[in-house]
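thread from #wetlab-drylab

HS: before we spend reagent money on co-crystallization trials with adenosine monophosphate, can we at least see a predicted complex? here's what I'd submit
DV: go for it
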Amino acid sequence: MFVFHTVRELQDYLNAQRSASKTIGFVPTMGALHEGHLQLIRKAGSENDVMVVSIFVNPIQFNNPEDLEKYPRTLEKDIELLKTTPCSVVFAPPVAEMYPEPVTEVMTFGGLEQVMEGYFRPGHFSGVGIVVKKLLEIVAPDRAYFGEKDFQQLAILKYMVRSQQLPVEIVDCPIVREADGLAMSSRNTRLTPVERKVAPAIYQALHSAKLQYVSHSPEDLKKKIWEDITKEPLLKPEYVEIVDTETLKPIAKWDDAPHAIVCVAVFLGSVRLIDNIVLY
Ligand code: AMP
């Protein structure tokens, strides 16, 4: 497994692979790797000849400076872990390698960026779009793999690839959860033992909503999920939304959307967790 820190080294290697007709799979991450990342990496490894994992904590997608500062950075440990996977190349650039000039551009995605995460984290998806587009241009993979854990991000990146006609296939991967239902996340390492114990109540509320949605209106179901989550006083929801999986627009009646998803963001102490569940 190679570890490259510059675009030049990475591209020299990948150009040689491409000349030998090898297919390239790509998994962008911000590191602090866990089983959720590893499942993406294994899937990418089984579908491509060469597998690239990037590890880059992208400063321009953080609207909260404290979140950026406290984001876990465990590069050495991540590299050791990646040696046990089909990863062929790690690309871990410093910030100046990705952004030699200050970023002034703003990216939009037909309004998909204005709801939920985009509403509460202004500028977040612009930062995500800019870094992912840049990484796709640098790596030029055949396929890029993203988790449904970040459902809105996935919808936005599919929109970006479609609207900008980027030559890559986006592959989505299901949410990987802990045994107690908590969605795996790098931020989970920042939870105290007490917080970690109550965190699975988020998934329990979503799971219960999926079982009962037919007997509620979307509005009532949202209220019920909010109430279920806040039965645990440490959990402070920022939003609970039920939206069309394609348009991300809120649903007033179940008949309005062919597929619906519940998306939530919940503060647990200073840590902000997101999760979702497809209802139908
Ligand atoms: P991150 O390092 O948090 O930016 O995540 C990198 C990629 O891993 C993104 O496509 C995420 O959606 C995906 N990912 C993170 N956590 C999970 C999870 N629990 N299940 C599935 N995919 C995940």
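DV: The radius of gyration is 19 Å.
HS: ok that's useful, forwarding to the group
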